[in-house]
Design goal:
alpha/beta; Aminopeptidase; eight-stranded mixed β-sheet
Amino acid sequence: MIFADLEVKINSKNGNEILLLKREPSTDYDKTVLVIGCFHGDEPDGEYLINKYLSERSMTKNRLLFIPCLNPDGKSNNVRTNANGVDLNRNFPTKNWEKTDCSSENIYYGGNAPASEDETRFIIYIIEKYQPDLIITLHEPYSVVNYDGPAKEIAQKISEITGYKVEESIGYPTPGSFGTYCGVEKNIPTITLELPEKSDKDLLWDKTKGIFDFIANSF
């Protein structure tokens, strides 16, 4: 059972549901935090953590928004890209977006145009409507806390919780990335939390559950 309200849902190209779930206090909330799992279909542990958190009732002073799985079509095929072969983390309308080779071998293909994908436009709509004060995306497999925009102190806090080191750069170019779109160009504190690859689920939850307490009550 999930203890959260269904706020919005859309269907993917292959007919899978993409959900925006909400948990907020009964009184006025302080801030809004958006957490996104499974940006890439072969990185499913973020969805597990979100659903694990929402499977238990807990208090929050902030409005928490969750997309447990942004890319269900990719997840169903255990591939990075969506049903159109697009890497959603290269599809955002940034100043550095670029059109690249669309062959099936290019897992970083950013689409025929910026924001060409339904999943990308869904996130853009959510950001414009809900104006989050912090965004966290859950990826794999580097075990680091990457950040964009004014998020250094938050990254350090998450590093203290998880033991993962802070990395301002992931180490390679990411044109059209979500971090550039939100963190750099919109100045929203944006964390890309890279989880370890193929973690034991119980150990992963023990290591990261403090993040959810932080965004609910301390941020």
